[in-house]
Give the backbone structure.
Amino acid sequence: MMENLITALDPAEFEQTICYICGASNPCNVLEEQGYRVICLGMPKRTLRRLRPMVSRRLARIIDEHEIDIVHCQRHKPTVYGVLATLLSRRAPAVFTTIHGEGYAHRLNRKAQNLLLLNRASRIIAVSNAVRDDIRRSNWIRSPESVVTVYNGIDPDTFRSQLTVAAARDRLGLPDGNTMIFGTVGRLTRIKGHVELISAFARVRAALPNATLAIVGSGAMDSELRRIAAECGVLDHVQFTGYRSDIPDVIRAFDVFVFPSLTEGLGLALLETMAAGIPVIASDIGGIPEVLTPESGGVLVRPGEIDSLANAMIAACRMNADQRRDIGHRLMRRVDATFTVKHMAAEMRNHYRAVAEERSNR
């Protein structure tokens, strides 16, 4: 999402410097290849478990050297260092921070930190109205109007693969022919709902023996999920693909995409699959119902409810090809209308410009 935003902003209007706190410079960095100024501080992640004032001092020097007017931080830890850096900088630039999920103030110490951090920000960008409302409700914000929604945006054409369904399935080692392929894409972590998905899929298999599930992604729960699939008796019908970089071609292999998250701000995988025209079953949580409106044709189920999820999957199996195609077209139109990079960049530009004008009028 960050790369999408950076490349969509007009370089004649915005000069951008991208700074990575962790890691070393990557020779394959897409932004650097495109001519953007990229700075890597090279800090090992383990050293940032405690506050490191030197990081903010280095960022402050970068701000002053490159005459930065706005510092836009992604997620919590960069916001800590970014806010401190603006206080140390001679330029005292404006601060933006993007928050990607609900529960940003889930602990008292985080809430206390947010009191200082968020009230220093000129704009707090939420990726959905659900996240926006959660931020306002859970934090001590002096100016609630500074918390605004800017939906994630993608390039829809990128996710409209030209592969045939048979070729896409062959790449993943999935069966073709008279087989119903359910798929999901995401990190293998508890909040993504894979445990519930596998349990629901076991019930689907009992009713419809031609179903297969593809779980795309990597993460700490890989072994546990395989064990659960074995205990449910469906391991032979669940394909764990591991991490994949060819997501547009992967999505092409699915008949139905399942997004069973237990918490979600606004998932990019959901937008990507909708852009590809694949019917969707997703949890009715966070920002998801803002995307999957009744008119879009997507199906919402209560998060964590295995029976509801299984019933929705079985119902999808019983739709004919024309019904699934119609839903896919409606989902594509929904993304094209609201969730594109163009829309995201235009809204962010307006916020950048508004803050610049506010500061110039002081």
User: Anything to note?
Assistant: The chain is about 45% helix and 15% strand. The longest strand covers residues 37-43. Residues 2-152+341-360 form a domain with the Rossmann fold fold (CATH 3.40.50.2000). The longest helix spans residues 341-360.
